[in-house]
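Suppose you are handed only two things: the residues of a chain and a line of SMILES describing LTNE7NMQ. What would the bound structure be? This form records exactly that question and the answer produced for it, so the two can be stored side by side and reused later without any lookup.

QUESTION INPUTS
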Amino acid sequence: MRKKLKLGLFGFGCVGQGLYHVLHETHGGVQAEIKKICVKTRNKERILPDHFFTFDRAEILNDPEIDVVVELIDDASVAYEVLKTALAHGKAVVTANKKMLAEHLEEIYHLQKKYNKPVIYEGAVCGSIPILRNLEEYYDNDLISSIDGIFNGSTNFILTKVFEEKKSYAEALKTAQELGFAESDPSLDVKGFDPKFKLVIAIAHTFGLFVKPENVINIGIDHISDLDLKFAREKGYTIKLIARAFKQNGNIYGFVAPQFVDTHNPLASVRNEYNAVQVQGAFAEKQLFIGKGAGSYPTGSAVLSDISALSYDYSYEYKKLHQETGLTFSNNLLLDAFVSFDLDVNITVKDFERLDSGYAANGKQYMVGQVKLEKLREWSLIPSVGVILAPECKFVSQDASTKESLLELKTV
Ligand SMILES: NC(=O)C1=CN([C@@H]2O[C@H](COP(=O)(O)OP(=O)(O)OC[C@H]3O[C@@H](n4cnc5c(N)ncnc54)[C@H](OP(=O)(O)O)[C@@H]3O)[C@@H](O)[C@H]2O)C=CC1
Ligand SMILES: N[C@@H](CC=O)C(=O)O
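ANSWER OUTPUT
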């Protein structure tokens, strides 16, 4: 039986207002009503009358009439406090806060069991793309070997504007902020933290493994230089920030890094704030989901879908967690990368496991070859170093001595 829900909303910014609009535009399609909205800033102009708003979280959290707390604020620590209190007070939670989820996912899993109340969060991973419920329900029995794609709308928007419209990086970032795509701290986007948080959540629902975000390597797009862009254009490539996780030899590997992408790769045509998720299963084989990964209405629609799911008592069962045993997370990988750096940076041939080419031009050095993932992370922290994976990058596991460890996974 479908329930009519009373909602307590935290946050009325880009996504909160998006939710408000999509909820009212379904014309009763979803049986839910926003009772109160908790926000932070007093004296801010709002599109709704004052009586909707409160600055006191307890007004929502202690209200026995409110069934569901919808958490859409831009502060991960406060969001976690809100989530814990809401569950303890017997309320279900919908959230789009990927930073908070990635940092506390295992605890949140246990809290749901303890209080017997669900936390669902489709809007937290790739905006409007319905991936989590698909991983939970549709891919319940398929053996998934990899999940990858474009998991951040802002950086895809920036790369599109820089490549196609020759906009400057700063100008493109400013537009992404104005359109509400970027995080309040945009370094989370451009340094690859935000897609990493989404990947951490996706890994739990794909492989049944809780990984701490600090154990997952993220390389952003902020050190990509004009010369790297020129190189890509000359070769007929574009650059995409790719999040990926895959299973090999009982290990799960996962990381975020920019990659040259050939025009035949379907990800090349995923532009602006669109995201894409590719799932590789043993039986269904490859499937690609594309949709808007950021923005007010697209994310609002994912949040609304979660609210609707709660009206039918939906909760994640974390099915893969009960299927998989003995998986470990590892960064012990070799990858094919293109590394560009200023002449005074101490990167040498010896740092490469295999050097395919190297040259100097326009005051920069370029080296292409096979490198350890950990080393790429170290280099990516140096401002004058650009790290971009090769278009046909192979990922070679160094973890096991079995034949299978020599198996090379190829990107599309
Ligand atoms: N923007 C997007 O496209 C997407 C965002 N998300 C996630 O959704 C969440 C919200 O993002 P977004 O709407 O863009 O953020 P905004 O910055 O647009 O809005 C943030 C809202 O949170 C409120 N807020 C902040 N701190 C508190 C607090 N301590 N107590 C009460 N309210 C508070 C703000 O209040 P006030 O209005 O008073 O300033 C504001 O209304 C974030 O976790 C983000 O990562 C997920 C997917 C896509
Ligand atoms: N900042 C994020 C917002 C959605 O998750 C992004 O750009 O993808």
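WHAT STANDS OUT: The CA atoms of residues 148 and 244 lie 4 Å apart. Confidence is low (pLDDT under 50) at residues 401-412.
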